[in-house]
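Obj: model holo form, ligand = flavin-adenine dinucleotide.
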Amino acid sequence: MVLNLQREMEKFKPDCPVEYGTPLAPYTTFRVGGPAEVLAHPRNVEELARLVRFQKEAGVPLTVLGGGANVVVSDRGIRGLVVHTGKLHGIRHEGTTLYVAAGTPISEAAAYAADHDLGGLAFIYAMPGSTGGAIWMNARCYDGEIAPILEKTRYLSLEEHDFCTVGTYQTRREEFGYKISPFQRGTRVILEATFRLTPGRRSLLWEEMRDHEEDRRRKGHFLAPCAGSIFKNNRAFGAPSGRIIDQLGLRGRQHGGARVSDLHGNIIVNHGNATAREIRELVEYVQQQVELERGIRLEPEILFLGEWDR
Ligand SMILES: Cc1cc2nc3c(=O)[nH]c(=O)nc-3n(C[C@H](O)[C@H](O)[C@H](O)COP(=O)(O)OP(=O)(O)OC[C@H]3O[C@@H](n4cnc5c(N)ncnc54)[C@H](O)[C@@H]3O)c2cc1C
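Output (holo structure tokens):
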């Protein structure tokens, strides 16, 4: 393990923009989180591959951050190398096949598709986050899901045997599930998605997308910083997690600057100057209350990144 990562990084001379000790809060939709020891913004696969080789040699952890829409970064921040994918950006299409670079907001991909009379991605318009993050989470909403339209995924391998080579994963539907994708094993950085879309009508697609956006607005998704749903739903629990939380009267419950949304039990918002710790403690409080009252354990959908005092 290197003792002074910044010094080593400066010797290594990365060819992409790199920052040291930059707070990650602005990179997350919760707007909380301490600094990244090193935050790098690769613009292409070559820059990313060089960074990953350096990270492996230095023996420091690697964290990939997309749109930061499903994470809580700890107040102490993240050690090692954080790769932000925002500059891996671009969309093109050939016929009904859409190619989207991993850092491109998935909502932008849906808008591009609609503008080119391509249907299949409208369901996800206005959902925050990157295309890589949407694949990683197998994001879903409004009766749609990423896996059925995802044909292939280009990735950079982090596996020992083919370290730093670019590969193509052909979607196998059985490897995806509810908020599950094969990329959660953490052995690949997603570079580009190939979506198999269908011919559609621009005006109708935009009508559908505006409806979804309006519905999210009504549900208060954009009123305060948040990360969407906190807990996964589980059919075996008999009701969606949000309803169970509502039934226990936990809507509006506040802990420091973190608050269970007044509009939806399964959303926690940063109500002011919340810390990551307050958000995590409120998540755990809700989880404990549900377990106490109902005997079921809700599983968080959001991810806690970085160093936590437990
Ligand atoms: C207001 C709001 C509404 C939301 N509504 C929905 C919804 O309806 N449905 C839904 O499913 N989600 C929803 N979410 C959650 C979030 O939008 C999705 O989970 C989204 O897919 C996360 O993408 P991201 O790029 O922000 O990922 P991040 O939060 O940055 O990262 C999530 C995980 O993906 C990994 N990752 C990201 N990019 C890559 C990559 N290129 N290669 C490898 N790993 C990668 C990260 O390492 C991390 O483990 C909502 C969030 C908000 C804030």
